[in-house]
Amino acid sequence: MRLFLGITCAVLLCCAAPLGAAELKPWGGVQPDSFELTDLDGRQHRLADYRGKVILINFWATWCEPCRDEIPAMEKLKDKFAGRPFVILGINADEPEARIRKFLSLMPVTFPVLLDRGGKTAKAWRVRVLPASFLVDPQGNVRYSVIGELDWSAREVADRVARLLPPG
Question: What is the DSSP letter of 16?
């Protein structure tokens, strides 16, 4: 799985469009399976734990340049919705913990990084290219997806997230 994702990401890098060229598209697929993954501190995270919140689920890897490039924009989006029912879950694509920790020491994130050991969750969510992201509404339904690098700090993206947030 890691080799396939690595080759796919490398191919995309050759032809990659600039940041923000990917498009957040309405979800038209089958609802993906729920998941239960461990973070780097050993805490369990279940998708159901975040019911009532808008969730940005981002599949990524340290070796994927577009994945790395979009992290600062995701942090800006998280800051924009601070205090609101919005959360980002970064699901790492089956890399060794030591590599992830080293990467995060150089580029810290403020959202949970979950470990997809064996790539089972990526497979269940039909992730074939990195980065791959999904916006989930407060009821737990995938509403939007994007394959490739997106400028998460763009106003149109923030507007889509805001429309999914519960009133209040």
Answer: P
152: burial class by Cβ within 10 Å (0-12, 13-18, 19+)?
Answer: buried
Determine the structural domain holding residue 30 and report its residue range.
2-164
How does pLDDT run along the chain (168 residues), one tens digit per residue? 554 444 444 444 433 444 446 889 999 888 898 999 999 999 999 999 999 999 999 999 999 999 999 999 999 999 999 999 999 999 999 999 999 999 999 999 999 999 999 999 999 999 999 999 999 999 999 999 999 999 999 999 999 999 999 887
- The pTM for the full model equals 0.87
Contact 148, 129 (CB under 8 A): yes
Alpha helices in 32-152 (DSSP H): 65-80, 97-106, 120-124
- CATH number (domain holding residue 12): 3.40.30.10
| Residues 6+ away with beta carbon under 8 Å from 21 | 148, 149
Number of domains forming the structure of the chain: 1
CA-nearest of 93, 111, 104, 100 to 50 is 111
136, 51 in Cβ contact below 8 A? Answer: no
